Amino acid sequence: SQTIHQWPATLVQPVGSPLSLECTVEGTSNPNLYWYRQAAGRGLQLLFYSVGIGQISSEVPQNLSASRPQDRQFILSSKKLLLSDSGFYLCAWSTSEGGNEQFFGPGTRLTVL
Amino acid sequence: RKEVEQDPGPFNVPEGATVAFNCTYSNSASQSFFWYRQDCRKEPKLLMSVYSSGNEDGRFTAQLNRASQYISLLIRDSKLSDSATYLCVVNPNLTDSWGKLQFGAGTQVVVTP
């Protein structure tokens, strides 16, 4: 069966510090991968998605970036965090056909102070 | 108009009662629909997928009305453990949005003893 991992689970970072969140998927090959952010009491905002190694599409302009160095690894980064980057970051995967169900990792709760 | 709209609630439901709520979507070409449940501070988890007129899984029933562009979720014999936020998710089937889904902000359900 497929599993998706994210770490760390929680993170408190000062403004201006760098960020690296990691997501890995097991039990499937060539998945579509997604990064979402959920602000408190709000819906999910798609940040990035990837259909293959090295292929990243950005949905919204921001100071975040994403990379996919391996088939089942997806990384979210920032060089300098802003207060507005606080939120619940969720990684998800779906089959490569697209448009199908997405399955979410446990998330990383980021607080920028 | 938002792509996917939900009544935020909360819907306060006595234990054992039935509750139903709707989700409207803007793109008439949408092909598939999903209901997720999200517990407080946790990741969304897939509850049900709908590819035709509806779906039923135990106490949960989803009904799709393509003419009016809404999908409903009905929960029978509510349990305390059904308390959660229910996210309506739509595959808009847009040519340039392959693999991407549209998320509603969620409907909160609170089941009371």
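Chain A is about 0% helix and 60% strand.
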